[in-house]
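In the design runs reported in the main text, the only information available to the sequence generator was the tokenized backbone. The following block is the verbatim input for one such run; it is reproduced so that readers can re-run the procedure and compare outputs position by position.
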């Protein structure tokens, strides 16, 4: 008989009232997949916070073990791609939403969702990056593909204290970009400048309804906020610039006009971190290993244990978490 292990289980009753409990499960309880892993490290993303608190309908299969990211060691494999003892990394693919995720001692997954663990980075460091940092790297790669270089002009990063924002600032700065950080926490200015931000602006400059077209302030942007913030970023982007959209912390609406697109020729680039093809995932993680300063990563990462996941998930939704949270499952 398999030894039981702890898991965080999100459930709903007949009245659709959500509950969150720490339970014991076995491998027999896990969902289908061709690779079973021991979960070595995971993280708490904003989406994980939504799943645990029920603030947004993230969970689409009940009951659910949340946790959309993990680094794991292969225990069993029916796939020729991976063998017992391999260390693998997962981001997305509905894990923690429609398929039991990382907040358990073990997970059973599809080999198609996994990539080999990148070299020169530890499991906890990789989860310090997590989906948020991986999304930041995808955003930067998209800006580069659009022709945005350090010499092109400043890059604005919204939600600068969040997971996407903080990693984006650190990577952009290392690559030589002039970074403008937009934050609602001015007391964190020194922290953001230490990451590499050259300028700090108050998010109030962007979060309220604005003009269809404003003064040109930056050549590009990384936006994890949406709504009026994204609309204002677009309205103030210089001719020929590009902005990535990868989040909706303020809202999923976009109260903008076509004017920035047809008068300044700018591009709005959608970033999806969930279903990226394997080649793009591997490329992004290789870039993270080379372009993200590990010392800066450690400055923005708080390491917790399994027992701290639930309270941290609530804190991240309340906007009380700075940077990234990595979960050391052995702690």
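Verbatim output:
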């Amino acid at each position: 008989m398999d030894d039981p292990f702890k898991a965080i289980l999100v459930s709903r009753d007949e009245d659709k009232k959500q509950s969150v409990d720490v339970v014991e499960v076995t491998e027999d309880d896990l969902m289908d997949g061709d690779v079973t892993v021991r979960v070595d490290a995971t993280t708490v993303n904003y989406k994980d916070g939504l799943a645990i608190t029920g603030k947004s309908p993230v969970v689409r299969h009940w009951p659910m073990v949340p946790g959309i990211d993990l680094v794991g060691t292969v225990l069993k494999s029916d796939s020729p791609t991976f063998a017992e003892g391999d260390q693998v990394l997962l981001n997305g693919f509905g894990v923690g939403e429609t398929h039991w995720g990382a907040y358990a001692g073990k997970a059973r997954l599809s080999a198609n969702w996994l990539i080999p663990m990148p070299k020169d980075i530890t499991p906890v460091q990789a989860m310090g990056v997590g989906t948020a940092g991986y999304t930041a790297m995808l955003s930067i790669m998209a800006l580069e593909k659009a022709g945005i270089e350090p010499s092109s002009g400043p890059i604005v990063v919204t939600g600068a204290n969040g997971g996407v924002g903080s990693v984006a600032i650190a990577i952009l700065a290392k690559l030589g970009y002039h970074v403008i950080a937009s934050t609602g926490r001015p007391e964190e200015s020194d922290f953001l400048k230490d990451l590499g931000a050259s300028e700090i602006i108050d998010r109030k400059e962007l979060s309220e309804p604005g003009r269809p077209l404003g003064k040109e302030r930056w050549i590009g942007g990384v936006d994890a906020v949406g709504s009026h913030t994204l609309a204002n970023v677009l309205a103030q982007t210089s001719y020929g610039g590009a902005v990535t959209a990868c989040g909706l912390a303020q809202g999923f609406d976009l109260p903008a006009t076509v004017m920035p697109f047809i008068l300044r020729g700018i591009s709005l680039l959608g970033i999806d971190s969930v279903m990226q093809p394997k080649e793009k995932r591997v490329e992004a993680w290789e870039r993270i290993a080379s372009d993200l300063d590990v010392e800066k990563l450690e400055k923005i990462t708080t390491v917790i244990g399994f027992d701290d996941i639930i309270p941290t998930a609530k804190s991240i939704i309340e906007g009380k978490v700075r940077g990234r949270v990595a979960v050391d499952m052995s702690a």
